[in-house]
Amino acid sequence: MEAANLPILQSESGQDFRVKLKSKKIVVDQLTKYKHSLKKLLDSQSQISEDDKEKLLATFEQTVQENVLISGLSWEEAPDDEGNDDECSALDDVLDEKIVQTSAKRRFYPKKILPYVVRALKAERKLMDFYVSMVNPEDMKKDPVQADLMKNVSEAAPGMLSQARTVSKSLRSLQQSAEGLYQALNMELSAESLEVYREVFGCSVQDSSPALLSAAPGLRQTVRRAVVEAEYSDDYIPPRKRTAMPSETDQ
After folding, report:
1. Helix (H, G, I), strand (E, B) or coil at 19
2. What's the pLDDT tens digit per position in 126-175?
3. pTM reported for the whole predicted model
4. Residue 10: which region, alpha, beta or left (left: phi > 0; alpha: psi -120 to 50)?
5. Taking the domains of the chain in order of start, what are their residue ranges?
6. What CA–CA distance (Å, rounded) separates 30 from 36?
């Protein structure tokens, strides 16, 4: 039995008796299911060869395809993605239905919830009426003495600030002066300065200036000579001038 010789089911008046369906995917699923069952049945028949089994399965599939109409179209003319379109359309229908339900809930539910909200607010107001304060608040009185002290402090603050600035400036100048004096005291004196010091004060330079002991070796000999000269000058008594006799002046 060849698949090409299978006629399409039609009546004498030309009426088409093919099965009309809307989904090609459903036909494919059912065809696969029954084709698998038919294959099991043929496998149990040992007297049928394998080639005949394959021909029978192909004939069954082709016969089903030729005797169905998918949305008024033949099997070859029907698109393969028609099943996906049906699923999308079904999903759109469900989505539209949910949108309609949500819109209805938005319109009716606020009216249903409103009485309960009003009752809750009234209950809260009643509870607030039952509230009783356990502590009576009192007004705080200001202490006049403390107020005068704060006023005096506020008035004296600018003057104290200016005094603090002046003291800080004077401290800086005093610090600079002290640093200059410290540098002058630690300064090493030269030989000329030592000589002037001895002539002005007339005392031993070694006793008056202990810091000179740590001077340079070149200056120590000069200092030592100045000290010796000072000691000799203290012991030396200059001779008095001899007065002339009257007789000698007359002669």
Report:
1. strand
2. 888 887 777 777 777 778 888 888 889 999 999 899 999 999 988 888 88
3. 0.30
4. beta
5. 3-79, 81-130, 188-236
6. 10
